Amino acid sequence: MRELVYYVAVSLDGYIAGPGGEFDAFPVEGDHMAAQIKLFPEAIPTVAADAMGINQIKATFDTVVMGWNPYAVGLPAGMTSPYQHLQQVVFSRNRTEEDIPGEHPNLELTHEDPVEVVRRLKSEPGKSIWLCGGGQLATQLSGEIDRLVLKRSPLLFGNGIPLFAPGAYQPSSFEEVSTTAFGSGVVISEYVRRRA
């Protein structure tokens, strides 16, 4: 069965974005970048990967799920299908296709229950499913997350969008399987869910 992998950058104080959804404080230069590109080339927006000559081989992910806010980050720049090399599922309770200008290949906007959608995706053949964010969606899908890959940056945001939003979810135990510290100060840690 396919895994749901929550792969995300996070500050030392547990935020994946600032109060207004800002994420540009996360370092995009340094020795950690080569490791990220090697591990998860599919998690780079298609346009950026093309410009950098990165082959997005779908070694790990062939699908990405995200909330409206992470998706909408690229809209002002005309990026209506940020990961068009993947199947993209965007969850929103109140947005419609009319809120997406122009063409958006390989992208589905849905009002469906995220848990039901992810369970359906997991039952289908394919590679792992990348949970891109945000915190509200991560909370809704907390019981479905099989693996966490956290890119901890040496930053404090003080406020913003948390890794997991407050909500009703059961305590879960994860086991650390790897941690790599980079000269840039970024630490990438991977955890797998402990199964009963």
Describe this structure in words.
Residues 4-187 form the Bacterial bifunctional deaminase-reductase C-terminal domain. It comes from Arthrobacter bambusae. InterPro entries: DHFR-like_dom_sf (IPR024072), RibDG_C (IPR002734), Riboflavin_Biosynth_HTPR (IPR050765). This protein is an alpha/beta fold. The chain has one domain: Dihydrofolate Reductase, subunit A. The chain has 5 helices and 10 strands. It has an 8-stranded mixed sheet with strand order 5-4-3-6-1-7-10-9. Strands 2-8 form a two-stranded antiparallel sheet. Strand 3, helix 3 and strand 4 (87-91) form a beta-alpha-beta unit. The longest helix is centred in the middle third of the chain and has 10 residues, at 114-123. It is globular. 31% of the residues are buried.
CATH superfamily: Dihydrofolate Reductase, subunit A
Number of helices: 5
What is the 3D form?
A: globular
The number of distinct structural domains comes to: 1
Strand content: 25-35%
Portion of residues in helices? 10-25%
Please outline the major beta sheet. 8 strands, mixed
- Write down the overall mean pLDDT: 92
Cα distance, first to last residue? Answer: 17 Å
Please identify the structural class as seen in this structure. alpha/beta
Q: What's the gyration radius in Å?
A: 16 Å
CATH fold assignment? Dihydrofolate Reductase, subunit A
For the largest sheet, list the strands in their spatial order. Answer: 5-4-3-6-1-7-10-9
Order of helices and strands: EEHHEHEEHEHEEEE
> What's the total number of strands?
10
CATH class: Alpha Beta
**CATH architectural grouping:** 3-Layer(aba) Sandwich
Uncertain regions: pLDDT < 50 for 5+ in a row? none
